[in-house]
Task: structure prediction
Amino acid sequence: MIKIEHLVKNYGSNCAVDDISFEVESGEIVGFLGPNGAGKSTTMNILTGYLSSTSGKASIAGIDILRDPIGAKKLIGYLPEQPPLYLDMTVEEYLKFIFDLKGCRLDRKAHLAEVCETVKIKDVYHKVIRTLSKGYRQRVGIAQALIGKPKVIIFDEPTVGLDPKQIIEIRNLIRGLGKDHTVILSTHILQEVQAVCDRIIIINKGKIVANEKTENISHMVDNNRRFNVKIAGPQKEILAMLKGMTGIAYAEALAERDGDAYTYMIESDFGVDIRKKLFYQLAERNWPLIGMEALGMNLEDIFITVVDKSEEYRTAGNLQNRIKRRTRGQDKSALEREVGASLYEEAQRQRSESSLSAASDEDDE
Ligand code: ADP
Result:
């Protein structure tokens, strides 16, 4: 449905998009993820015909955006980072205006009712946009993108500036749109792609560093193994044993106690499955293994690892040291430098927000 081939965009001597190629199949929701300045908006703007490329090709359903911009734009609904709203209009006036502007041939009343139903804005239909909350304004922005039933919907940072409750609602809304549309979503928020997208394209410094199905992306770094293990027995001795055990790269005692059992976080060497060995060694010493929880990698770890790989930090020792440092929660400044401070901060913010907002499900006006 969407095809980008060897796309390049230079701003003077600054190469914002550096020879990227990817395809998006019909019905997919694809996340375009990268730190600020990675080249996401530039790519989106080329894809939507707002910006010309220096070289390369972009097409929607076989229609070349440069050769037939009007034909291509008819297939696209676009929500830019700043929704193009006229604040003095009511929602009704605005959506009717957009409908006419797009030259839609559908039945206006029925189509607008359908769109309002999809984005849940019927209750504010007669209100002036200026009086709406940011969450509702974003819904109106999504409504304008849906007018005319475009095959492809493109969202640029759709949840920036929303509160945690609104973020969840907008994400659910976007997920729902995937049933009938092909969706590209640009974001610098790791949890966003995890929550919404079927596939993730990671861009860094204008280059694609990963293009994987969301559930598969962890396979790129599956040689990292982390567990929380709960073991009954003397904490100091157990920790010393874990630290000294061949196959364990890192071990620390967590501040968690359950009777005479303590929890430890361990990380095995690359390619080592430590579980059976750990079980037998603990049994030999009469220290019962009470529990073991695989921690996996979150997208933040994956992003860092993928970017590390793309930047040729591939030697096992180097990568291992980084993961060890990260696991201990140290050396944040080095991390921030490498992946962009905003990305790191955003991931932390999102993590605390998601625990805050887990229970919420409706946007109150
Ligand atoms: P993202 O959306 O991932 O944050 P952008 O596509 O906005 O990234 O920017 C990519 C790079 O291009 C950045 O280095 C940015 O400073 C630069 N850039 C973006 N727009 C312009 C512009 N109009 N003129 C000059 N440089 C620009």
Notes: The longest strand covers residues 14-24.
